[in-house]
Design brief:
globular; Ubiquitin-like (UB roll); 4 helices; Immunoglobulin-like
Length: 656
C-alpha cells in the first residue's frame, strides 16, 4: 500500500501544479513534465521541467527560489515561462530524471550550492512580551549629623516603548529643584529614539559644543538593538565540500563556532577587537579531521568608523536651559543642533554637523579613515558669531586630527586640535567656567606584551582662552603577581607658567572574592615643598541580593590625617548606609536610605533602587517558586505567586 500512497500523492501534486501554473509551450520533440526538484538529495518542490534529448530545462523561478546562482545564464522563453538549461547552468554537475518517483535529481558541485551567510556574533533577539503599564520612583534620602538633609527622586511612567521621566531634588539649602523632565519613545525596528522635553545636545565630532535644551529631538539609538555591530568587521568566504564545523580564532582565542552544510559560505561579523588581529579559520569534517582554510591578518576599525551602509544622526531644537540639570530657567532663545554620519565603506565614514542659537552659527565636517597602517580622523569647522556687549560679528575656524594604531602588544595614539580666537560653538558649562579650549595636543603609547605586566606613557598640552599653556606627562607601569595581587607605579607632572606639580605613587592591590585591599605610598612636589604620604583602603562589595558591604580608608600626608568609613546593607525592600569621616580632627557622619517603589501588574513593590530594566514574573496561586535569571536563582514568588525581577538589560534577550 505504501507505493500506491506515494503515487496518489504525486498525482495530486501534478494536478495541483497543472491547475495553478500556465502551460509551457515546448518545442517539437520536447517532453514537458511536472517533477519534484531535488538538489543534492534535498527536494525543494514541484516545478515544470522540459526533457530535450540529453538536456533538461528547469523553470527559472524554481531555481531562483532555491537560491541557485543563475547569473550569466541566458534563459529560454517557452510560453509564459522562462527555462534554464542545466548544461548551461553548471558544467560538470550531473542530473537525472527518475520517472518512477517523478523527480529530477540534480547533483551540484559544492561551489555552486546556495551561499550560506552566517553571523558569528550571537543575535538572540528579545521577545516582545506584554506591553503592560508600569511606573517606578527611585528615592535617595540622606541626613547629616548637623541636621541637614537631601532627598533625590527619579521616576518614570509608561507602557511599551514610551515613558515619561523626571528627576528632582530637595535639600536644606536650596529647597526643591526640578531636574530633567522628558517623554521618550523608542522605535527599536528603526533603531530610533524621540525625546520631548529636557535633553542634552551633544556633538559627535570634537569641534562642536553642547547645551541643555528643552525641546524636541530625534536620534539614532543603537542601544535599542544591542546586538547590532556598528563598526566594520572583516568577513571570510569559502567553500565546504562536505558538511562540517567551522571555527574562527583571533589571536589564538576561539571567537566563534558554527555548523555549516556543504557549499559556499560567508562568515560575517567576526567578533574581533579594534586593532591588529591574526585570524585563522579551521574546519572539522564529520569524521573528526581538521584542516585550516585560511590564515589572514585584519586591522579592525574603532567606534569612530561605521560599517558600510550604516548611518547615525541626531536632531535637536529647543530653548536653552540654565543650570546644570537641577533648577534653572529657559531663556527666550532658540538653539539647535543636527549632525549626520554614514559609513560609505568599511574604511571610510563621513559626517557633517550644524548648530547654533540667536548669536552663534557653526558648521563642520568630519571623516574617519581606516588604513593598513592605522586609523585617521579629521574634523573641520567654521563659525559666525555676534560678540556679547558690542554685537560685533566675528568669523572663526577650527580643525582637529587624530591617529591611532593598535597592534597585539602595543598601541599608539596622536591627536591635535586648534581653534582661533574668534571660533565659537554652543558653549557647555565647562567652557563658560574655564574658558573655551584653543589648543590641545596629546600622544600616548601603551605596551602590553602579556597579561603579567604593562607600560603606558602619555604627554600633552592644553591652552584655554586667556590662560597660559598647560603641559603634562605621565608614565604608569603595572605588574601582576599571581592571580590576586597587582603592583602599580605611576608618575605625573603638570607644568605651566604659573606652577609646577610632580607626583609619584606606588600601590599594591590584593583582590579576594568580594574583598579588596590597597596599600599606597606617594610623594608630591609643587615646586616649593615636598610632601610624603601613605594610605590604606579596604572594601567589600555589596552583594547582588541581600547582605553587607563596607569601605574603610585611612590616609596620612605629612601632618595631615584623614579617614573615611562606610557600612551599607542591602535588604529585600531597600538599601541602607552609614558613613563617618574625619579630616584632621573635623569629624562628620551621615545616614542614607535608598530604594524604589515599582508599580506593575496592578501591584506595588518596594525594592532597592531600579538601575535598569525590570519585569514581573507571575505564577498565579503558587508561592515560594524559585525564579531563575541566566540559570541563577534571583528570588522566590510571594504568597500571590509574584516576583519582581530587577537588573534586566533593556532590549537584550534576558533569560528568566
Amino acid at each position: 500500500m505504501r507505493p500506491l500512497k506515494h503515487a496518489r500523492r504525486a498525482v495530486l501534486a501534478i494536478a495541483l501544479a497543472c491547475a495553478i501554473a500556465p502551460p509551457a509551450l515546448a518545442l517539437p520533440g520536447d517532453e514537458t513534465l511536472l517533477l519534484d526538484i531535488c538538489i543534492n538529495n534535498r527536494c525543494i518542490g514541484i516545478a515544470p521541467v522540459i526533457a530535450r534529448g540529453d538536456d533538461v530545462l528547469v523553470d527559472l523561478a524554481a531555481l531562483q527560489a532555491a537560491a541557485l546562482d543563475t547569473e550569466g545564464v541566458v534563459p529560454e522563453q517557452l510560453g509564459e515561462r522562462q527555462f534554464v538549461s542545466l548544461r548551461q547552468l553548471n558544467h560538470g554537475s550531473t542530473f537525472k530524471i527518475d520517472r518512477t518517483l517523478l523527480r529530477l535529481d540534480l547533483k551540484l558541485r559544492a561551489d555552486r550550492l546556495p551561499r550560506q551567510r552566517v553571523a558569528m556574533t550571537t543575535r538572540a533577539q528579545s521577545e516582545a512580551g506584554l506591553a503592560a503599564w508600569s511606573a517606578f520612583v527611585n528615592y535617595g534620602a540622606s541626613v547629616q549629623d548637623n541636621g541637614d538633609g537631601t532627598l533625590f527622586l527619579d521616576g518614570a511612567f509608561g507602557r511599551g516603548y514610551g515613558a515619561l521621566r523626571s528627576t528632582g531634588q530637595w535639600d536644606s539649602e536650596f529647597g526643591w529643584r526640578r531636574g530633567l523632565t522628558r517623554f521618550e519613545y523608542d522605535q527599536p525596528d528603526a533603531v530610533r529614539r524621540w525625546t520631548v522635553g529636557d535633553q542634552y545636545a551633544t556633538p559627535r565630532d570634537p569641534l562642536g559644543g553642547g547645551r541643555l535644551l528643552g525641546g524636541v529631538g530625534v536620534e539614532r539609538a543603537f542601544d535599542t538593538d544591542p546586538y547590532l555591530v556598528t563598526f566594520p568587521r572583516p568577513y571570510f568566504s569559502g567553500v565546504l565540500e562536505s558538511p562540517g564545523t567551522v571555527e574562527v580564532y583571533a589571536n589564538g582565542a576561539l571567537i566563534g563556532r558554527r555548523d555549516l552544510a556543504a557549499g559556499p559560505f560567508t562568515l560575517e561579523q567576526l567578533g574581533i577587537q579594534p586593532g591588529r588581529n591574526d585570524v585563522r579559520v579551521i574546519v572539522r569534517d564529520p569524521f573528526g579531521n581538521r584542516s585550516e582554510l585560511a590564515t589572514q591578518s585584519y586591522y579592525g576599525g574603532s567606534a569612530r568608523l561605521l560599517t558600510r551602509g550604516l548611518d547615525e544622526y541626531a536632531v535637536r531644537i529647543g530653548a536653552p536651559r540654565t543650570g546644570s540639570g537641577l533648577g534653572g530657567e529657559y531663556n527666550g532663545e532658540v538653539a539647535y543642533q543636527a549632525w549626520y554620519r554614514r559609513g560609505l565603506s568599511d574604511w571610510l565614514t563621513l559626517g557633517g554637523r550644524v548648530e547654533g542659537d540667536d548669536r552663534v552659527r557653526n558648521a563642520g565636517l568630519d571623516a574617519a579613515i581606516s588604513t593598513p597602517v592605522g586609523e585617521f580622523a579629521f574634523a573641520l569647522a567654521g563659525s559666525d558669531a555676534e560678540l556679547l556687549g558690542n554685537g560685533r560679528a566675528v568669523n572663526g575656524q577650527a580643525h582637529a586630527a587624530y591617529y591611532t594604531l593598535a597592534m597585539r602588544t602595543w598601541s599608539l595614539g596622536l591627536g591635535t586640535r586648534r581653534a582661533d580666537a574668534d571660533y565659537r560653538n554652543l558653549s557647555d558649562p565647562a567652557a563658560l567656567l574655564l574658558g573655551p579650549l584653543r589648543v590641545e595636543d596629546y600622544a600616548s603609547f601603551a605596551f602590553t606584551p602579556d597579561t603579567a605586566w604593562s607600560l603606558q606613557f602619555n604627554t600633552g598640552r592644553q591652552q584655554r582662552e586667556g590662560e597660559p599653556s598647560l603641559r603634562s606627562w605621565s608614565a604608569t607601569g603595572s605588574l601582576r603577581m599571581g592571580g590576586r595581587t597587582q603592583m602599580m607605579l605611576s608618575a605625573q607632572r603638570l607644568d605651566s607658567d604659573l606652577f609646577r606639580d610632580t607626583s609619584v605613587q606606588l600601590s599594591l592591590n590584593i583582590a579576594f572574592d568580594r574583598d579588596n585591599v590597597n596599600i599606597g605610598l606617594r610623594q608630591h612636589d609643587d615646586g616649593t615643598t615636598k610632601r610624603q604620604g601613605y594610605g590604606f583602603d579596604a572594601s567589600r562589595s555589596r552583594p547582588a541580593d541581600t547582605g553587607f558591604g563596607y569601605t574603610v580608608n585611612a590616609q596620612r600626608d605629612e601632618n595631615l590625617d584623614s579617614a573615611f568609613a562606610m557600612l551599607e546593607y542591602q535588604a529585600t525592600h531597600a538599601r541602607f548606609a552609614a558613613t563617618a569621616s574625619d579630616h584632621d580632627g573635623d569629624t562628620s557622619g551621615s545616614l542614607f536610605m535608598s530604594g524604589a517603589l515599582v508599580g506593575i501588574g496592578g501591584r506595588m513593590f518596594a525594592t532597592p533602587p531600579v538601575e535598569s530594566g525590570f519585569a514581573l514574573v507571575r505564577v498565579p496561586g503558587l508561592a515560594n517558586v524559585p525564579i531563575l535569571r541566566e540559570n541563577q536563582v534571583v528570588g522566590r514568588t510571594d504568597a500571590r505567586g509574584d516576583l519582581l525581577v530587577r537588573d534586566l538589560l533593556p532590549y537584550y534577550a534576558n533569560r528568566v
